[in-house]
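re: that complex we talked abt at group meeting.

here r the seqs, copy pasted straight from the sheet so there may be weird spacing, ignore it
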Amino acid sequence: MAPSSERTVTVWQDKVRARVRVAGSGPALVYLHCGYGLVWDEFLDLLARDFTVYAPEHPGTSDGLPDAVKPLDDVWDLTLFYDELFDRLGLKSAAVVGHSFGGMVAAELAASARERVGKLVLIDSLGLWRDDTPIKNYMVMAQPDLEPLLFHDRTHPARKHIFANLEDADSVVRLTWAQACTGKFIWSVPDKGLKKRIHRITAPTLIVWGRQDGLTPPVYAAEFARLVPDSRTEIVDKAAHMAPMEQPAAVAALVRDFIKK
Amino acid sequence: MKISMFHLMPYRELPADFEKRYHSVWVDPPFWELADPERVGQYYNWTLDELIHAALCGMDGICVNEHHQNAYGFMPSPNVMGSVLARATNGLNTAIVQMGATLPTTNPPIRVAEEYAMLDCISGGRLVAGMPLGSPMDVNLCYGISPIEQRERYYEAHDLILKAWQSREIFAWNGRFFQLPMVNLWPRPIQSPYPPVWVPGSGSLSTWDFSAKHGHCYCFLSYYGNNVGKKIMDGFWDFVSRTGLEANPYRAGFLQLVAVSETDAKAEQEYFPHIRYFYDKCLHIAPELLAIPGHQDYRSLVHSVKNINPGQGELMMQVPNWKYRDFVENQFVIAGSPATVRDQLMTAVKKLRVGNLMVLLHIGSMPHELTLKNIELFSREVMPHFRTVWDDEGWVNNWWPQRLRGNGTSAGAGREAH
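got the structure back, here u go
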């Protein structure tokens, strides 16, 4: 199933054009993607059966809008940008689901604009840091070293969404620039102060983690669970950091059940 | 034209199997396994002595640069080296070419303005102010600057430095990255309105634009010689012509590896192990560290991805198997007897149309004595033939310290002054 529509809205003193893919019907669910850009895959198709899924493309990662990231300098700007984006989309409040980089943004939004986030789902989320388990910098890793951190199944077809086909210049540019634009908000250590704000989250929160996540190992699920006031945790087997791509049915079912509950 | 000696100051005694045992020469080579601080002290002193020797031999300029966390070239502070060089070469007509202090990692950037002004004052107005953007390894990894912000920080730092040098009034700087309430530089550079600025680059369109917009000298720094460099420099000169700038050869700098001995055969015997060491070990940089997303801005990224030259890639793949002859034939290194080097370097300089040449006369593991020999032979047997290369076209080298400009024949009177 293809996304049913694509909306481009103007935010942030009209300086940022934001593209949002919208599909499905039902209560609003905002999905914030990982550092490799938005991929509309089986996971989002499954969610669109029960929800109206709004999937914004992180500023700068949309085709034809590479400079949209420029007016946003830091996590504070980015969080307020999403707060405004909700207005532009006519959303007062929604369930917010974030994966990896998008998880950090979702958590920041839930801590700052509490009324926006009815329920929060954090999937293999970035945003916290433990000195005993430093998070590797995926933007500077060779593919053979990175693959096992992201995928439990090294032959999984979704790998093509993460590792560019070097013959395909457009895919190299798209994936490189998506990491550049998201990396702006997490470089060089992906701890930008969420730990100071995370206690403010009031939304009921589901923490979903790939058991084999090698980038943000499950100790980070426990760390989020420790710091988010109202949360429960689900560990998904046979899934690494890209859990929604690797186990779309299992992760989508957990998300659906939690939000509809 | 002007010819300066460039020195990287590499670690000269890496183990023979370094490139097999270690991930990268840059960012993560383990210091305590590979190096020794006492030995490093010796290297710094050799490096300074070699550059001072180049000045005494009459080289037009001596160059140092900034890099971090590596065995390839580790002068984390080029200005510490530059201050020794400036002091030691007073009385000589040698330019102090700082290639240089990396702008996006110096915070606040007026530190660069201050230290360059100090060097200009100490040297009596002999400074060339290099303004590097910095490598992704140095800036993004070692110094933690967000890749996508690196160039924007660079632009702001550059504007701030130029204003700090020139402003007659105390001013407040309220920038995006830097905020300073009262900028009032002590000292100011001797050179007016400011020292010549050289911008090192690796062929990125954005850097060409930037150099052109500000009237700076663009320097293509590569270790792949003038054959590979020709494609880039042709692109640069096309750009210069499209932009409506004069084709003044002095607005371009280029770096070439050079090794001179008494005969071609002797050059091979003396220099080949060090050339091999340089390409095998000093350039053993993990590729993923070179291509960090965001280090190139979007336009340069698209340009470089879509213009990958498969022929060049294949050439690079063959380098590990190259013999001496291959390095020379492909012009990665111009090496041989003085006559050979003269001929080949002259061809290279003319085909690249370069007025400010830098030569890497210390290569890889080259020991101190051999480096001194290379410097002496180059300055005595090669360099004098190049002084007047561009004189018949009548260009002025606006990118050289004014009091050292002279004309082709009278410049570089280092030996007499000493």
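couple things i noticed - DSSP finds nine helices and eight strands in chain A. The mean pLDDT of chain A is 97.
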